[in-house]
Amino acid sequence: MKPTTTRMVMNLSDTLRRDDQQKIITKQMEEKEKLNVLRGGNTGVALGDGNYAGECPRKAYMRWKGLFLSAEDNRGIMFEGGLANETILIEKLTRQLPAGFKILTQSECGTSWEINGIKVTGSPDIVIADKDNVPHVGIECKQICSLWTGVDVLLKNKVSLKHLAQSAHYMLELGLPEYKLIYVSYVDYQLPYMKALDAYVPAKDAALSEHFEYGTNGKAKKMLPFRKVYELGFNDTGFLQYREEGSKSFWTTTVIHRQGIYDFFAHVTTLDSNLGPRPLTLTAEGEFATYNICDYCKEIKPVCDKYETVPSRWLSEVAKLDTVTDLNKI
Ligand code: SF4
To answer: How many angstroms is it from 295 CA to the middle of ligand 1?
Structure first.
């Protein structure tokens, strides 16, 4: 006679939602340990003329003060995709490492320095080191999550100022002369019929056409999954530059000066007395972008619009937002 077993019944959706909630609590506990610390993930750049770009100084300020902007459900899923991307790359690199080299864990390669008595910590995504833990290669990993970012990265060689600033911060702190920034897209992106795209999508058999699928009419139908690696370094005058890895093309020089990274965080430590200007929305080369970063900051923009002249009121109003957790109260 077969033993009787009780069949497990699971509501998968509820189970995953429960895990989402638990992860939020775990994340809040991790964040609480870093209270009163400025974070490498909020790296921006001071432009030297009183303006800032790449990251909003106020976002770095609120995180320093323990106000944590929770990711909504769907953004949380995207964030998990980013972590999965990192895990996949670490596994691939681990299999390919030359003898005597290893990938440092985040606790072994975390960066830390101080500005005006405030600690600034960072967690580089991947650092390859020798047996003595001396870093040789640093890598920042980003997942492509929209068709338009994919077009920028793959076809226009346009890299996010924020991603570059964060990579430059870790490169400086790890003492590396160069750094890598890798973008990975895991999605088949259906191309919409848009004139704006025609100018960039390659014709069948042209350079880069291997990244597209074409219909019988010869028109591109899909952008296929891809990886693209950029190499980064500072030029002789201290400005960050980047180019596609292995390419012989000219470097693209950015507005990120090595001192601008440190000045950005110095500025953030002064926001208690003055919230300062809103960030400029710039391309890596310093041109104005076609959108405004504040228009994509839907939770905090109403507070900035009303209270930006009184930092203490701004902070207390941000703390009241439904999407913000005040880690000081946990
Ligand atoms: S609305 Fe603009 S200035 Fe205010 S926090 Fe958001 S990005 Fe920063």
So the answer is: 8
